[in-house]
């Protein structure tokens, strides 16, 4: 089984039936530690998001077995490049698990030009950078985070310091938000319709850890 099938299965493509279950019954099967660096231009517009994901032992081992074509228990340069391309293609329809909103509205992000795959201490590392499709001026409330819309992959920030802002404007303040599930449901009760529960995309988004920027005019 190629990583495309492994990764997209874990993203919910192969297990598409999960979309018809109550999201509360879903649970992650892949885990990763994340680091996110926001880069802000001098004019107060968003320049880029730089992502680093470090995956759990089990998934890392699975990736190693699938892409170690010469069976030497390590991934060579060409094997790592093939891995990075496969993940890049697999996650395109999921917007690379990115959450970027401004005043509650989704911000369109360009796909990364490429990804970098690596192994450190037997753990699979994935690095990539994205940019907004249109210039994004930081104004009002802007949220940044990572979430899997199918609940199959848990990618989270273990520490608040894992979210970094380079060039934060003086008129902006930042805060890491870690939603309490009960409070998140209570606060969004009015929108929790049957259709909402049948599609976990929005539900998983309200549970995601986010960096919130508040920027005054």
Structure description:
- This protein is of the alpha+beta class and 217 residues long.
- The chain has one domain.
- It contains six helices and eleven strands.
- It has helices spanning 3-11, 57-67, 77-90, 181-187, 194-198, 200-207, and strands spanning 30-40, 46-55, 98-102, 105-106, 115-120, 123-130, 140-146, 153-156, 163-166, 172-177, 210-215.
- The strands form two sheets. Strands 1, 2, 5, 6, 8 and 9 form a six-stranded mixed sheet that branches. It has a five-stranded antiparallel sheet with strand order 4-3-7-11-10, with no helix packed on it.
- α1 (3-11) packs parallel to α3 (77-90).
- The longest helix has 14 residues, at 77-90.
- It is globular and about 55 Å long.
- 27% of the residues are buried.
- Mean pLDDT is 82; it is low at 9-25.
Structural class: alpha+beta
Uncertain parts: 9-25
Terminal CA distance? 52 Å
Average pLDDT metric: 82
Judging from the principal axes of the Cα atoms, what is the shape? globular
Tally of separate domains? 1
Number of helices: 6
Main sheet characteristics: 6 strands, mixed
Which oligomerization state do the chains in this entry correspond to? Answer: single chain
Count of β-strands: 11
Task: List the topology elements.
Layout: H1 3-11, E1 30-40, E2 46-55, H2 57-67, H3 77-90, E3 98-102, E4 105-106, E5 115-120, E6 123-130, E7 140-146, E8 153-156, E9 163-166, E10 172-177, H4 181-187, H5 194-198, H6 200-207, E11 210-215
Parallel strand pairs: 1-8, 1-9
Antiparallel strand pairs: 1-2, 2-6, 3-4, 3-7, 5-6, 7-11, 10-11
């Amino acid at each position: 089984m190629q990583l495309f099938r492994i990764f997209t299965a874990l993203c919910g493509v192969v297990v598409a039936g999960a979309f018809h279950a109550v999201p509360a019954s879903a649970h992650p099967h892949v885990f990763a530690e994340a680091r996110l660096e926001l880069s802000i231009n001098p004019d107060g517009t968003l320049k880029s998001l730089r992502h680093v994901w470090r995956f759990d032992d089990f998934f890392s081992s699975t990736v190693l077995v699938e892409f170690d074509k010469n069976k030497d228990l390590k991934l060579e340069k060409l094997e790592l490049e093939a891995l990075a391309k496969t993940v890049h293609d697999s996650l395109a329809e999921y917007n690379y698990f990115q959450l970027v909103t401004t005043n509650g509205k989704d911000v369109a992000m360009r796909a990364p030009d490429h990804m970098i795959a690596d192994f450190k201490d037997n753990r699979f590392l994935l690095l990539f950078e994205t940019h907004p499709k249109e210039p994004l001026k930081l104004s009002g409330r802007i949220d940044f985070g990572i979430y899997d819309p199918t609940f199959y992959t848990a990618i989270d920030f273990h520490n608040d310091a894992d979210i970094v802002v380079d060039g934060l404007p003086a008129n902006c303040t930042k805060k890491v938000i870690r939603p309490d599930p009960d409070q998140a449901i209570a606060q969004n009760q009015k929108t929790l319709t049957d259709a909402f529960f049948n599609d976990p995309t929005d539900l998983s988004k309200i549970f995601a850890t986010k960096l919130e920027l508040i920027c005054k005019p």
